[in-house]
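Lab notebook, bench 4. The sequencing result for the construct came back, and we need a structural model before the next group meeting so we can plan mutations. Quick request posted to the team channel:

Model the 3D structure of this chain.
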Amino acid sequence: MAEPTIRELLAKLAERDERIAALEKENLLLQQKVDALVRKIFGSSSEAFHPNQPDLFGFTPEAEAQEAGKVCASFSGEASREKSDRRERAARIPEDLPIEEIVIDPLEVQAEPEAFKYIGAEVSEQLDYTPGAFRKVRTVRRKYVAREVEDAKPVIAPLPPKLQDGCLAAPGLLANIAVSRFVDHLPFYRQEQIFKTRYGVHIPRQNMVRWMEMIADRLEPVYNEISDAVLGGDYIQMDETPIRYLDPGNGKTQIGYLWVTGKPGGDNVFRWRTTRAAQCVKDILPPTFKGILQTDAYAAYGSFAKTRPEVTMAGCMAHARRKFYQAREQKPGVANFILCHIAALYRVEASLRKRKAGSMLREADRASASRPILARLGRALKILKPRFMPQSNMGKAITYAQSIWPSLQVYLTAGRVEIDNNLIENAIRPSAVGKRNWLFIGGAEAGKKTAILYTIVESCRRRGIDPLAYLHDVLTRLPRYTNHTVHELTPENWAEARAASRKTYAAAA
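Done. Here's the predicted structure in token form:
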């Protein structure tokens, strides 16, 4: 057998070097995936970013590093001020709480009070709490008969209207169960245990489920009023989150979705669908909707936009930022350079919120302050893209940002539009906490009931309304309302009526 020539050996060496380089790239990508998985499972979920890191300027594309330094320095000062403000906050006792006063005299004074003269007192305060208690509400309708009328028929007052005849639970109990489930995220079985062990009252969880279905049905007209107000505008944010539900046919759980549409500054509406298909977006948004739809980059929204040219898609800067944050370990200098620019964009938004700026002022400030930052960032991404493998974390982050770049700039020229979709994600967050506790909901039909009640309590949360007080009052009054007057019971109108009533009372006093 002939000995290989030098050319053949060099060719084999070159082939081996290529193979080694390919394996090194593959190993790097796999290591990044492992690191990301470890962070997801064991690490902090926070995306807190500290711009004043030593390796901040490990990358400075062209002459833009100096500008990035100014951006980061100003943002760092803002962050430190916010941290200082947080330290100044402390728990306090509200001034309007009822007071239970305990007076303690020294033992020697108690034994011989006439021998001492009162000269003052030292006062200390604590915040206490008394848990709720069950009570039996007995309605007694007394019967009467006319004295002077022979064979008169007895008279009796009619029963007050109820949500459902024969329902054991009064509005206060129904409201408490609903808030415990959809605000405090307590599964029904845990509520059953609490009622039994702490109060000696046994309420089977099956009863609670039926009661929640019942009040969801009764509150659906209120839910529809909220939905009409959200979908009637020209700017909507949208997102979706998975929730498992029981499939009665095979006893297993399937994945359904709560789709959320929101109006910044207004309400968020939850809708239940058993799929995540693009058709869901078409079904949820009315054919009459024209304006701006702000979402993440999920393909269903893009498919919807292609069929509706009258709808403009706005992107989410927070999603783009998240991907660069995840790429920090690969190239911290590059990631920090990009994150500093994004932080500067958010600093502009924070200033606008602090000044309670209107649409026109937001457009003006964004044109002068945000547009140049976004332009620099766009140029930097073009320079950076060839330097990273498409499969790397940084490569994916750059590709993602560039794929939605036109939609990320929509907010610059539309003052009513937010920089990101965080408001709608914040609305979804309570349901994410809840499903970790109760794992799944009942059958597919239960999804609709869940969506109604989440919409109601989320509307209360956004307005700072106590959902327990709201539901107790509304469930008490609801049987007396018609389809023409039910709009008065939305959390928005309920809060306005309460505020007006307080002003009237204060003026009369």
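Residues 53-69 have pLDDT under 50 and may be disordered.
Will bring this to the meeting.
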